[in-house]
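Many introductory courses stop at the sequence. We go one step further.
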Amino acid sequence: MKAAIYCRLSEEDRNKRTENDDSISIQNQKTMLLQYAMQQEWEIYRIYSDDDYTGADRKRPEFNRLLADAKARRFDIILCKTQSRFTRELELVEKYIHGLFPLWGIRFISVVDHADTDNRGNKKSRQINGLINEWYLEDMSENIKSVLTSRRQNGYHIGSFALYGYRKDPERKGHLLVDEEAAQVVREVFTLFSRGYGKTAIARILNDRGIPNPAEYKRQKGMRYRQPETKQSTLWKYSAISSMLVNEIYIGNMVQGKYGSASYKTKKNVPRPKSEWYTVEGTHEPIISRELWDAVRQKNAERTKPFASGRTGLFAGKARCANCGYTLRSSKKGEKRYLQCPNRHVAKDSCEGAFISVERLERMVREELNRLLTEYLDEDLLKAEQKNISLSCGQRSTAPMQQELHSLRERISLYQKKQEEYAESLRAVYMDRARGLLPEREAGELAKEFLAGKEHFLRLHTQAQEHLAKLQKNATEDHGQEDSVTKQFRLECLDRETVETMVEYVNVGRRIAGSRDVPVEIHWNF
């Protein structure tokens, strides 16, 4: 038998000699599991080790390598110190330990808490362990949130990075000090805007004088800063000026909590409504006077023009400049709306790249999408789904039939498997009772439990089969349509939801000299 050993440590261990050394805790886990494997006379296939990763992190490199090798059946056993070393999520316990590992012929063993998938009797204890670990994650997340909330409510700065114009106080945790060199730039930005200069014009003035933007300034000073997702640039842009002019931190107020995680299971942050922000006044020295702040706020209110019909732009966040990689910004001339690179006019030597009308880009994306629909969509599939899908402007598919059919078949297979498992468990109970291994009362209780489970999945199996038969009947109806089915799937116009679903991003290039052609490269979500 080949065994794979998996080890994990969730927090940084100070006993490391070098950054690449395994921590002492990881070494202890390896020693324990190697001795256990030797006692069982198992061959060691490989040792997988994730150091400094939490049990809720699904992106652990060695964890994912272990799963890939398990799926390829490169070993027979996965050996861990405890079940929580493998994962703290109950969802993954069910998915892998109780679901996929048995299908792949992989036995899972955790030594300390005696979890063993070959032992049918301790499945409930594995599930309870998984539930306790899930509670641990949730409780830990809530405890951390409560501490952070308390610090925010008391006006302490808890961010990893100080806002441009400030630096962290080395002697007082959670307090900001003015960074005078950057603060002078902040004051100039507010002053120029109050005197009537536009945001793009201010960016051009700073760039022409060679003043580095906030990220580049912090990099030059050796300060911590957030790396931009797109290509690195030292230029000031409209967006940087715009966000600076509305940030209350510059008048001495601490504003935090603008973003928050959707769940303790994900690190992705989402915007939070302003009513949930934490604002505490007078927590640090202001850079901008209240008079200047009020003047800028009034100018901003005068300049603000809502987007047509109050809707989100069709390609907002989706269109990028093929030259510099920055997201295109919307502008309007008369009744026409255009997309242009934010670097187009911010400096003499800046990008002279993308510029295209929204109408033209919409037409190019729509025509390409229609071409793909015609070329790749299967005619029989379209006929089966024509009652469920409408791609005309303003309508969306709610239940693609093909996907539902596939899901139903998977559920039917799962219900059948569960019935067989309960039937096998019933037989095992009767055999153990006949051999005198189980007391009559305990055997009766187990048999009653397993029989109820079998009947439950039998009902689900029957209902799913009836639903499947009904869907298959609907899929064969409505033949003899006069128009080609594919014509029903042609997009007549694009809406924001279609773009969000279908388009990952669009690269827009500079207009080709001597022609009206603008190169466009579409990256799809499929």
